[in-house]
């Protein structure tokens, strides 16, 4: 297995899928001649030509809608948002068109397409370019929400998302693009809706997705030093959620901490902890604790930005709390 | 090519129409990009020359006159050939007249067969009576929610459909009953959808605003004003991607035209020369706001200027005009020249929706359109004047259509409501068993 970056893994997935299916095309801002704002689509224009790798004007609502129409007409668009912050401009097409098309047309039309791009908090870009909004999309029937936390998952999940017959919201992490890890070569598939146990443990379950998976793993190492054996679960697909893997873990550890970068109110952690309470109440030895981003827009100053985000220390603290170590 | 030059900025007057509507499909197959080759090449050269000097208004007039004369000559010649073939003995004037009668009538140099005229008339009348029935059913509380009728706008639905190929894509906003009926969808399914029945065109999931028929290439039925416009260019994109020469007929209203998404779409469609005909049904009112209160530029066909999308204004109360101009627009889009805007001037006789008493306009204004410019009455008069039929025959036809519509409503009403199990159907295509939530497992 070769060691490659998260962005190269995404690139491989798109190239493989475009080679096997002519209906797949990539469209977005700076995806072609510029090779992608984050270089995810490096070399794809050269490989596939301007028919299938298409630079757009800065017109998110327009090209999101174009993708919706093209998918209804039988193509398989990959629509890249430079970041998910800009996708807010395209919400009507994502929420009112793509998500509802299959249902609203009695199954006659569907929108098999991927909206993808960088999400989550970036570094030092203040409020409008640093936010985790996956809970918006996860709330909507008709959408699937996928968030890989490492290069191998990035490749396997993106391939699955492109092949999936529904609209997939594929949220990459801007900070993770340069992460390097071993990734299987050639065709590699990670099924949607399957969580992954990133670290096995007996004492406490840490559920974390995207960049927070890395934080949870770091916290688990710290907890191990303190004699707490943490299990780390990465749902990978936020919707539909593999609750069985989470519940099985809680049945074993009897304690859970849910971590997310986004805001606490009506967040992903709220959903997961509610599911644990509803379905594994008798397994719990302590109330589920959430570690989330602070309930403020992201500030620019380095110290404030650090304060606004969840930290490894906070996760360690939360795990100690549910384990009655505080 | 002449047409390519002439479309440079704004198109208010398109070049002369093709010879006859019935041969359109064949022409397209033979000359996908060059219908002008049907004309005398020498004439084309002359017109191209004239266009080089397009600042001279009088030359434009001469050009137009020559075009009209040429078409008249072409038509007369072809009739002459038919006459000679049919009546080798030289024929007689009587025979010629009969021949013309059998062919229907000619409008702006374009021939319409009696069959196609009857077809267009009957469909317009069918839509009118269908909408009246829908209004009645709404009044009886059998139709729920929003219900937007298109009375007065039937010529657009029918004329466009007459011009389009069945493989062309079409999508519109929520005022969609007329369009889906004109596309040829089953009226009982359309009425059943209004009534929220199992046999509705989308199984009772959409109602009045969300009529779709994928088999007829009718993509809605979209409820958010202007939403269908980016989707429409997506269909155009797919057509260009596959090079299958299908045009996306993307319909919006004089309200929708003010949405930002429309201009994003104009830009991309023009930039990539997507085969899209943008149709603006200008019925003068966006809900209760008149066009002059909502639009700084009320000539909506000019809204594409900044994007180099040519436009033309059409009398949307004249089905033959709608057919003729839509044909030209479709040809433009199909030939690879990119998008074009067709502004259809029309009027809705009813309020915006069933709950709208339309107090924002005067009765006189409504009457003026209704009695003076009604598209059905207009075509009836043209057909009677041409000796194709009689007023009595139309009255008889109207009685038949009313009966048909009543039967359709009855059949639709007799259907059962959707089975409760379909509540969970068609949310997604690829379910992932065990993952939460998937249909039927919520809670």
What features would you describe in this structure?
The complex is a heterodimer of chains A (326) and B (443). Chain A has 326 residues and is α/β, with parallel strands linked by helices. Chain A has two domains: 182 residues, Thiamin diphosphate (ThDP)-binding fold, Pyr/PP domains (Rossmann fold, 3-Layer(aba) Sandwich); 127 residues, 3-Layer(aba) Sandwich (Rossmann fold), CATH 3.40.50.920. Chain A contains twelve helices and 14 strands. Chain A has a seven-stranded mixed sheet, sandwiched between helices. In chain A, β10, α8 and β11 form a beta-alpha-beta unit. The mean pLDDT of chain A is 97. Chain B is globular, with a radius of gyration of 23 Å. By secondary structure, chain B is an alpha/beta fold. Chain B has 16 helices and ten strands. In chain B, α6 crosses α7 and α6 packs across α16. Helix content of chain B is 48%, strand content 9%. In chain B, a hairpin with a 2-residue loop joins β1 and β2.
Keywords:
heterodimer; A: 326 residues; alpha/beta; Rossmann fold; 2 domains; seven-stranded mixed β-sheet; five-stranded mixed β-sheet; 14 strands; 37% helix; B: 443 residues; six-stranded parallel β-sheet; two-stranded antiparallel sheet; 16 helices; 10 strands; globular; disordered N terminus
The low-confidence parts of chain B are: 1-57, 76-101
Mean pLDDT metric of chain B: 83
Number of helices of chain B: 16
Shape of chain B: globular
Total strands of chain A: the figure is 14
Main β-sheet, spatial strand arrangement of chain B:
4-3-5-6-10-9
Oligomer: heterodimer
* Main sheet: strand order of chain A: 3-2-4-5-7-6-12
How many distinct beta strands of chain B? 10
């Amino acid at each position: 297995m070769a060691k490659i970056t998260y962005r190269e893994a995404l690139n491989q997935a798109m190239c493989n899928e475009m080679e096997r299916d002519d209906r797949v095309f990539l469209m977005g801002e700076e995806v072609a001649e510029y090779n992608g704002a984050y270089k995810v689509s490096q070399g794809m224009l050269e490989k596939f030509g301007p028919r299938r790798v298409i630079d757009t004007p800065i017109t998110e609502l327009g090209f999101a809608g174009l993708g919706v129409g093209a998918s209804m007409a039988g193509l398989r668009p990959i629509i890249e948002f430079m970041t998910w912050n800009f996708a807010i401009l395209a919400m009507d097409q994502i929420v009112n068109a793509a998500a509802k098309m299959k249902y609203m047309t009695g199954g006659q039309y569907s929108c098999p397409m991927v909206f993808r791009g960088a999400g989550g908090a970036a570094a030092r870009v203040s409020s409008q370019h640093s936010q985790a909004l996956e809970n918006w999309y996860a709330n909507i029937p008709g959408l699937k929400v996928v968030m890989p936390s490492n290069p191998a998952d990035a490749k396997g999940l993106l391939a699955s998302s492109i092949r999936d017959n529904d609209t997939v919201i594929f949220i990459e992490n801007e900070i993770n693009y340069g992460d390097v890890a071993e990734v299987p070569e050639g065709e590699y598939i990670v099924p949607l809706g399957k969580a992954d146990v990133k670290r096995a443990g007996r004492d406490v379950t840490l559920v974390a997705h995207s960049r927070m998976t890395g934080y949870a793993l770091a916290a688990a190492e710290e907890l191990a030093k303190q004699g707490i054996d943490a299990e780390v679960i990465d749902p990978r697909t936020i919707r539909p959620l593999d609750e069985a893997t989470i519940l099985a873990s809680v049945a074993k550890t009897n304690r859970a901490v849910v971590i997310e970068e986004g805001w606490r109110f009506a967040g992903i952690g709220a959903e997961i902890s509610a599911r644990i309470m509803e379905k594994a109440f008798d397994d719990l030895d302590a109330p589920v604790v959430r570690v989330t981003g602070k309930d403020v827009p992201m500030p620019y100053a380095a110290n404030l930005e650090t304060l606004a985000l969840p930290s490894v220390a906070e996760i360690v603290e939360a795990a100690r709390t549910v384990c009655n170590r505080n | 090519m002449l047409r390519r030059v002439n479309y440079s900025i704004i198109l208010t007057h398109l070049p002369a129409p093709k010879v006859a509507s019935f041969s359109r499909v064949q022409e397209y197959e033979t000359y996908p990009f060059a219908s002008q080759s049907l004309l005398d090449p020498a004439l084309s050269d002359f017109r191209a020359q004239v266009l080089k000097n397009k600042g001279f208004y009088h030359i434009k007039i001469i050009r137009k006159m020559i075009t009209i004369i040429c078409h008249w000559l072409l038509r007369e010649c072809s009739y002459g050939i038919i006459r000679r073939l049919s009546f080798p003995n030289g024929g007689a004037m009587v025979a010629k007249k009969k021949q013309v009668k059998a062919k229907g009538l000619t409008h702006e140099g374009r021939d319409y067969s009696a069959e196609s005229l009857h077809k267009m008339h009957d469909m317009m009348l069918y839509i009118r009576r269908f909408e009246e029935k829908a209004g009645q059913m709404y009044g009886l509380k059998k139709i729920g929610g929003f219900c937007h009728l298109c009375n007065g706008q039937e010529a657009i639905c029918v004329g466009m459909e007459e011009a389009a190929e069945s493989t062309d894509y079409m999508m519109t906003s929520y005022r969609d009953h007329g369009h889906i009926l004109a596309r040829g969808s089953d009226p009982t399914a359309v009425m059943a959808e209004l009534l929220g029945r199992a046999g509705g065109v989308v199984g009772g999931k959409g109602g009045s605003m969300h009529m779709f028929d994928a088999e007829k290439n009718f993509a809605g039925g979209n409820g958010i004003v202007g939403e269908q416009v980016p989707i429409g260019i997506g269909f155009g994109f797919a057509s260009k991607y596959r090079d299958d020469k299908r045009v996306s007929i993307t319909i919006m209203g004089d309200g929708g035209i003010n949405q930002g998404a429309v201009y994003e779409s104009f830009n991309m469609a023009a930039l990539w020369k997507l085969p899209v005909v943008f149709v603006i049904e200008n019925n003068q009112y966006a809900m209760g706001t008149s066009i002059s209160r909502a639009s700084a530029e009320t000539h909506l066909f000019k809204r594409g200027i900044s994007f180099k999308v040519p436009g033309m204004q059409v009398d949307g109360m004249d089905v033959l005009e709608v057919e003729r101009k839509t044909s030209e627009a479709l040809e433009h889009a199909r030939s690879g020249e990119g998008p074009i805007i067709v502004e259809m001037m029309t009027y809705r006789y009813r309020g915006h929706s069933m709950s709208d008493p339309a107090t924002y306009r005067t009765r006189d204004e409504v009457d003026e359109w209704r009695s003076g410019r009604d598209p059905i009455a207009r075509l009836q008069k043209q057909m009677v004047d041409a000796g194709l039929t009689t007023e009595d025959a139309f009255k008889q036809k109207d009685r038949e259509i009313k009966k048909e519509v009543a039967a359709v409503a009855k059949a639709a009403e007799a259907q059962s409501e959707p089975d409760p199990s379909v509540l969970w159907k068609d949310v997604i295509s690829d379910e992932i068993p065990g993952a939460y939530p998937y249909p039927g497992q919520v809670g």
